Amino acid sequence: MVPSAVIALSRVTAPARLAAAAQRRAGRSAEVELYFAFDDPCSAVAVIDLAARVAGRPVDLLMKPVLRRGIPGDPAVELKRSYAVLDAGRLARRIGLQLARTEPLAAESTAFLAEWVAESGPRSRELRAFCVRAMHHLWFEAGEPSPEVLRAMWLEELGSTPASGGHQIRMNEARMARRGPYATPAAWLAGRWYFAQDRPDSIMRYLDELGWTERQ
């Protein structure tokens, strides 16, 4: 049964492996879409962890911030937000970090950050670096979501003034829904989605399987 399962799985992933090989021949990188929220502590862990894990691979970690997520009308939403702080503390210790906050952040307090990142486009390493710094500031240094402080940080990383607007955020939210995830943080890679805070090892194994291994 085990060899049969391995053969069946290899056939399922064959199209993705062929597509990845074609991308490499064309000189392109892999793309991992990361859907996250700045007011979500588990997203903070995922952003920091995945950015570090893909740094040595030919992989673009596409930053896709969202505001609306979860199950519409969920009566337990506030309870889940409080639990996320506890869960993020556990996950942070796994990667050698200590969560500095004990209470959730208000979603509206970080909405401007989602707008800045969404409107600038998802691809650049500088944008990824800003997101990592912002998450450290908010969740591991207990820094306030001050537009002035974070705008200075943006200028240091990207050398420009951030744009604002909600159109691209709505597009991110719609794309996330089409992909299948309903909550943050979620990662999409070559036809598969993962809860990004819990499954970083699985994401790396799938990148290996597709041939997107560490640069030599």
Give the SSE map.
Layout: H1 2-25, E1 30-36, H2 41-54, E2 59-65, H3 77-94, H4 111-120, H5 125-140, H6 147-158, H7 167-179, E3 186-189, E4 192-195, H8 200-210
Parallel strand pairs: 1-2
Antiparallel strand pairs: 1-3, 3-4
Helix pairs in contact: 2-3, 2-5, 4-7, 5-6
Task: Outline the structure in words.
This protein is of the alpha+beta class. The chain has a single domain, classed as Glutaredoxin. Helix content is 55%, strand content 10%. The protein has a four-stranded mixed β-sheet with strand order 2-1-3-4, sandwiched between helices. α2 crosses α5, α4 packs across α7 and α5 runs antiparallel to α6. The longest helix has 24 residues.
Write a concise synopsis of the structure shown.
The protein has 216 residues and is an alpha+beta fold. It has helices at 2-25, 41-54, 77-94, 111-120, 125-140, 147-158, 167-179, 200-210; strands spanning 30-36, 59-65, 186-189, 192-195. A four-stranded mixed β-sheet has the order 2-1-3-4, sandwiched between helices.
Radius of gyration: 18 Å
Highest-level CATH class: Alpha Beta
So, CATH architecture? 3-Layer(aba) Sandwich
Q: How would you state the average pLDDT, rounded?
A: 91
Number of E strands: 4
User: How much strand?
Assistant: 5-15%
Helix count, DSSP H or I runs of 4 or more residues:
8
* Strand order across the largest sheet: 2-1-3-4
What would you call the shape?
A: globular
